[in-house]
């Protein structure tokens, strides 16, 4: 069965519209969203409306939790101000885990932590692949054989020594970012494209994966970020490049 996997939209409705159109073109009927829906200086309310209209099940990322709780940084506060109290509460009530197909477990970062990298370490101010033994230890035991994670915005597929597979689809709406949390680091993709995945799954086993990089009208997102006073976001959206703070 084909499964579309999207994540880390970060309020980029322009990118989400393009991705949803491409999923329809590919005739992918089952789609799951791995969290961080709205936090951004872009289009938080419009992004929620698109997801509701498409009927896509979503789980809660760390930024969704911060928006709902009134915490986080400037992008979280912008999103919170753009949403109604009911919408913020709905974000906070999203589940931490979803099981979109038998044998498939979806979560945002790690199964028990929405704000910790699973597949990556920080080295030299950048995200780099973590040793597979560390990935397995972070993941722990699961009944499922295929795991879907997000958070780092880095598209990847990793197979563990026991045969389990982890897929990160990359970020729909934020191709780079800078994180000042020690150790300060950047996540980069090197291009402004929207990222998502289309998987072929049989009995919880990954048969094939298409990690998609889709061109969209990123200039509109750049202009929106700049109009809202976020030159950092404008640079990330335009280039997919960032530097550690």
Please give a quick description of this structure:
This protein has 245 residues and is of the alpha/beta class.
Question: Your description of this structure?
Answer:
There is one protein chain. With 245 residues, the protein is of the alpha/beta class. The protein has a single domain, classed as Purple Acid Phosphatase, chain A, domain 2 (4-Layer Sandwich). Helices cover 31% and strands 24% of the residues. It has a 5-stranded mixed sheet, with no helix packed on it. The protein has a 4-stranded mixed sheet with strand order 2-1-12-13. A two-stranded antiparallel sheet has the order 5-6. A hairpin with a 2-residue loop joins strand 5 and strand 6. The longest helix has 13 residues.
Number of helices: 8
What is the CATH architecture descriptor? Answer: 4-Layer Sandwich
What is the residue-averaged pLDDT? 97
Q: Which structural class fits the helix and strand makeup?
A: alpha/beta
- Report on the biggest sheet: 5 strands, mixed
Silhouette:
globular
Number of strands: 13
Strand content: 15-25%
Number of domains: 1
Separation of termini? 42 Å
Provide the CATH superfamily: Metallo-dependent phosphatases
How do the strands of the widest beta sheet line up side by side? 3-4-7-9-8
CATH topology category name: Purple Acid Phosphatase, chain A, domain 2
Radius of gyration: 17 Å
| Order of H and E elements | EHEHHHHEEEEHEEEEEEEHH
Helix content: 25-40%
